[in-house]
Amino acid sequence: MKLLIIGLLVGLLTGLVSALCGVGGGIIMVPAFVLLLNMGQKAAVATSLVVVVVSALSGTMNHVTSKSGLIDWRVVGVTALGAAVAAWYGTDLMRSLSAPMLTKIFGVVLVVVGVKMLLVKA
Fold first, then answer.
1. 8 A C-beta contact, residue 14 and residue 29
2. H helix count then E strand count, the chain
3. Which of 46, 64, 52 has its CA nearest to residue 11?
4. Which of 5, 31, 48, 99 could crosslink 41 through cysteines, CB 3.0-4.6 Å?
5. What are the structural domain ranges in the chain?
6. Cα–Cα distances in Å, from 6 out to 20, 66, 79, 109, 116?
7. What DSSP designation does 68 have?
8. Cα–Cα dist 104/100, whole Å
9. Could you read off the pLDDT of 76-93 as tens digits, one per residue?
């Protein structure tokens, strides 16, 4: 029951933040899975990637069917290619790192990106 409630709440929050900001997988799910569901860091990362696929498809379909014109398909093509290649090899790298090292890298990335976003004029 705990898994169902926490999973659903984390999913709702992640879906909303993802739709509003384009983020959510790592920023919300990984810490929630580790802290609330006692998952290991590596399992939390791997699990969040799978959930991101499902939520990204849902959001993408809504953008495509609404014909909002907000998707730049040229950017999608080149960025998706780079992201797919990097993600393939990045998963191997993730599995080779220790969980504490992965947690530290994750924390540093969150802090650096957060500070940069706060300091840059919109």
1. yes
2. 5, 0
3. 52
4. 99
5. 2-119
6. 21, 31, 32, 25, 30
7. -
8. 6
9. 999 999 999 999 999 999
